[in-house]
Write a structure and sequence with these properties.
180 residues, Immunoglobulin-like, four-stranded antiparallel β-sheet, mainly beta
Amino acid sequence: MKTTMTTMALAAIVAAGTAVAAVPASAATAKAAPTRCHTADLKAGFATGDDAKPEMGRTGKQTQAFIWFTNKSNRTCTLSGFAGVDMVGAQRTDGTWSLVRSAKRPTKITLGRGDTTDFSINLLPVARSTPQKEKFVPATFLVTPPNETKHFTLKWPFGGQILKQDGATHPGTYLNPVGQ
C-alpha cells in the first residue's frame, strides 16, 4: 500500500553529520491574513481640509462630512462595514441621534501601519431661522469602528444645524460604509 504524506510529514535527512528538516513549500510560504482593526488600533477625527468641510450654510441641499480612521498599531488590520455614529445635540431638546446606514455595499479595507481610510456622512443642513423643534444642532459625535463596541468622542467642528429627521424612514442625514 502506497501512502503519500508530502505536505503533512517532516522528513529528517542526515547529510554530512548534520540533521536537516525538510518543510513543505506550502507551509514555509503561508502567512496569516490580517485580522480586523480594533478601536485601540485606531485614531479617528473629522477631515477638516477646505475640500473636506461640509457646506453647512448651503441649506436645503445635502453636503458631506468625512471621518477618518488611521491605523496607529504596529500590525496590518482590516475594516469592513459601517461605523456606528451617534450625534449628540447641543440643544437641551436634541438628545442623541443614531444615524442610519445608506444602501451602499461595504468593501474590506486593509490598513498597514500609519494608513488612513475614511467614510462620509451625508447631511441635510437647515437655516438658523428654522424652528427649534425641526433642527438638530450637533455638538459631539460618538464614532464606533465597524464590529467594535468602544467609541471615539469627536467634537463637531463645523457649526450649523441639520434638519431633524431622527424618526424618518429615509432621512437626508445618514452614513456610508468605511472606504466610501
